[in-house]
Amino acid sequence: MKLLLIDDDIALCELLNEYLGAQGFELVIKNDGEAGLNEALAHDYPLILLDVMLPKIEGFEVLKTLRQHKLTPVIMLTARGEDFDRIFGLELGADDYLAKPFNHRELLARVKAITRRIEHILASNKSQPLNWHDIEVKPHSREVLAAGHTLLLTGTEYEILNLLLKHAGDIVSKEQISEQVLGRRLAAFDRSIDMHVSNIRKKIAEHIEPERIKTIRGSGYILVSGA
Fold it and tell me: Is the Cβ–Cβ distance between 110 and 132 less than 8 Å?
């Protein structure tokens, strides 16, 4: 599987190319934001690894522009690992993030979680549509409709909403979402699930009121009818 890595750390790129290459992944490497964005727009990749601190065009701007054209899964690589970087990246539509310096095995786990999700999506294309009042998910086309309007969701957002829809009316814990969608255990103070759900809420709210995804403090989330 061919992945796109956009990072200006040459030594790290070489290490990841060797490490991920040994795991069956082929990396296309770009060392600045402009070249990386052009490559991401010109070709379809199953996953993009995107550094925040980049020459020419910073990573956040690359992601923002990319999201205007494509929903390619993106893992942000944040040098400082600050909450602002992580939250901002997720708000812009990143699927996941990893703070530098990171363990290569942790990166591999994140990469495999997303690529497994892609394989699962392809395998479930014949699944029947899921409906919950005015929200519908069509697995064969990955189309999501809210009151008849198409929602543009990232892969992670799609999988979270799909999970909530399968358990509509019941509480789905953050632990379930983290394990089944992100492919990892929920870490303390990890706000990624909250940000993904917030993004989904905003997109649904453009077409439907009142709010459909309720937060159950200390428990998780529940998809309600709104009636």
Answer: no
